[in-house]
Structure prediction request, 152 residues.
Amino acid sequence: MEHKQFKGHVILLPYPSQGHINPLLQFAKRLASKGVKSTLATTHYTVNSICAAHIGVEPVSDGFDEGGFSQAGNVDFYLKSFKEEGSRSLSQLIQKFKDSSTLLPVWCMTRFCHGLLMWQSSKGFMELLSLPTLPLCVASFLASIMAGLLCR
Prediction:
């Protein structure tokens, strides 16, 4: 199957709260308008509340798929679970795109600059995926796309 002429495919992973999801969703829309396939990866609990034309929305697990943060009970427990379950399910999502003959493989992952999700940019995790990751610094990210540094 022939893919629409995309300049790349980016997964965007926000911290799962409205103040973090919405800015990345708006950024994903902007990327899509420039020809970059964008997939917002968010928790199972929040995935059904997001609907955006031309943007893929895929679930990842935080370990609390039925109730999200409120199901966890405390921040430390939630973040530990999100690190473990999020790493596993994000890896599976990226592999799904890589293995598919009809889906465009992921070329880059970005995240909103948030210290609570630093696990996703750890050297071991990203080496395992063989995938560059960038904290969301919009100017440098767009410059990298325009310079062809994120396209294969």
User: Anything to note?
Assistant: The radius of gyration is 15 Å.
